[in-house]
C-alpha cells in the first residue's frame, strides 16, 4: 500500500534520527505533530510542515533553531519540511491569564521578550521584513470591512504607516508571540511557533493585546489594556505609545487576514476601539 506524504516524511524522520514509538498529537492547518521517543525513554517532537505554509513555517523554524533554546523550545535538527525538536507538555501562559493572573502573565511575556531579543552569535536566518508582513493590511479592500468598522481600518492603517515612517532598530522577531504560544517547562516559559520576522522590537508585543482566546473578552477591557501597556513599557523600556500603536496596527492586520479567509472579526472589533482610545491617550 502506498504511503501518504506525511507517512513517508514520518518514516524517514524516524530512521534519520533513530526515533521510536511515534504518536500522533495534532493536525493543524499548518502541520502534523507527533510525539516520539529517543533512546526508548526521552520524549521529543516531530513537526511536519504542510506544503502550503512550508515557506513561512520553515522561516520560523529556522529562527527557533537560531534561538538555541534560550527563551524558546530547542530545535535539534531540521531536514526539509520536518523539524525535530524538544517536547513540551506544560500549560500555556493563556491558562494563567484565563485564571485571573493576567498581570503575572504579562510580566512573564516581558521577561521572555527580553530573552528572545538578546544579541546572539551565529548567522541569522532569512526573515520576513515587517513592512512586507503588513502588505495584507495596506492592500485590504475597505469594502470587505463591516460598514461601521471602516473608520477603525482607516485609523489603524494610518497608525501603521506612521510607525513605518519612524523606524527604530531592526531585530529578529518571533512575530506571533501570544499567551498560548508560550509554554511552561523545567527551563521556565518557552516560546514556540515563531513566524520569523525582522522589524521594530515593540511590534513583538502587539499580539498580546488581542489575546488570549476564550478569556471572556479580557483583551477588550480598557483597564487590562492600560495595565498591560504599563507593565510592558516599564519592564522593556519601549515607548508606551509605540507599543499601543503596534497593537492597533496588528489588530487591524489580523482582521484583514481573517476577512480574506472569510472568518468573522467580532472579537477583534471588540478590542480595536479600546486599543485606539488607549493609543490616543498615551
Automatic annotation (TrEMBL):
Superkingdom of the organism of origin: Bacteria
GO biological process, any: secondary metabolic process
Stretches that traverse the bilayer: none
One term of GO molecular function: phosphotransferase activity, alcohol group as acceptor
UniProt cross-references to Gene3D superfamilies, sorted A to Z: Transferase(Phosphotransferase) domain 1
Pfam families tied to this protein: APH_6_hur
Protein name stated in the entry: Phosphotransferase
